[in-house]
Amino acid sequence: MQSSSEQETRHRSSGHRGFTLIEVMIVVALVGIVAAIAVPMMGNALGYLRLSGDARNTSNAIALSKMRAAAVFGRVRLYVDLGGKSFHLETWDRTTSTWNLDGGTTYLSPTVSFSFGVVSSAPPNTQGTIGQAAACRNDANTSDIAGTACIVFNSRGVPVDSTSFSPGVVTALYVTDGSAVYGITVSATGMVRSWRTLPVATPAWALQ
What are the C-alpha distances in Å from 155 to residues 74, 108, 168? Predict the structure, then answer.
């Protein structure tokens, strides 16, 4: 004969049962609905973070170029490889008359590129016509380097023309992922500002 404790345990276990197929299907359906809502939102959030992060890195690199120029009391430029989607600092060596790499190279995210897309006007009170910074020049300063853009600072941290090195230049760099455009502008006095707009024909730039 079974003891009373064994009978009680058997009675309790017989009262338990698994999930039915309908219950499992309901749970799976709910998980699918939540995923369908969350995944696009997460993708948009990650895209925004990548683009804004690249814009911030570009802005910081421009500011660093300006400070570096004042620190070494010489010319420093931010060299941008438009097609390679990368940028780095270069310092002018008076002794050898060459531009020398200063630090490492930073790359944009895979979905981000140097472009202003379909945006047709520059941020207010900046460039007259929207466009990337002027092309970098070779060491001899005789020709442009294709597929590049440069922002050059003199020893006082003022942006200068990449050919004549004369001050009074207003320049900018633009990055986009196709859904928004960031513009990093440099005034004639060297003030760096960041802007953002949606890629529409008549944009409303917002200062960041």
Answer: 4, 28, 14
Q: Which domain holds residue 120?
A: 19-207
Nearest to 82 by CA among 107, 117, 111, 53: 107
Q: Residue 165 has which token pair?
A: 């090195």
pTM: 0.79
In degrees, rounded to 5, the angle at the alpha carbon of residue 85 between the alpha carbons of residues 79 and 88 is 30
Which tokens go with 201?
Answer: 């024909």
Residue 191's CB: how many other CB atoms inside 10 A? 11
The string of pLDDT tens digits covering residues 127-167 is 999 999 999 999 999 999 999 999 999 999 999 999 999 99
**Which CATH number fits the domain that encloses residue 123?**
3.55.40.10
Q: Flag whether pLDDT at 28 surpasses 50.
A: yes
* Spatial separation of the C-alpha atoms in residues 114 and 101, rounded to whole Å: 21
- CA-nearest of 189, 185, 190, 178 to 205 is 185
